[in-house]
């Protein structure tokens, strides 16, 4: 466990460990839950499809392509739960493959009207 105060800035880093030097990593989706085994009932989206869902969520420059850095302000689930657990989905792509998901950034899906 990592203990923090409310609204304290949290900084995280995800590293890809591979002998292939031509890979890059991208943070696609991160959700938080008060339950470590249930990330569907009560969740808070920090980022989804590369789009920030929380105003404090930010990506930070990384020294290498195989490292992703991000952060957000600490929060609680309505002060009823003592812990917050994170689950993040990362995408691994070929470095400099600009058509890959890693280089698309925020991908928002628009809902269509079923009328026409």
TrEMBL record:
Keywords: Disulfide bond, Signal. Coiled coil: none annotated. Pfam families: Zona_pellucida. Residues 1-109 form the ZP domain. InterPro entries: ZP-C, ZP-C_dom, ZP_dom. Gene3D superfamilies: Zona pellucida, ZP-C domain (2.60.40.4100). PANTHER family: CUB AND ZONA PELLUCIDA-LIKE DOMAIN-CONTAINING PROTEIN 1, ENDOGLIN/TGF-BETA RECEPTOR TYPE III. This is DMBT1 protein. It comes from Myiagra hebetior. The lineage of its organism: Eukaryota, Metazoa, Chordata, Craniata, Vertebrata. The gene is Dmbt1_3.
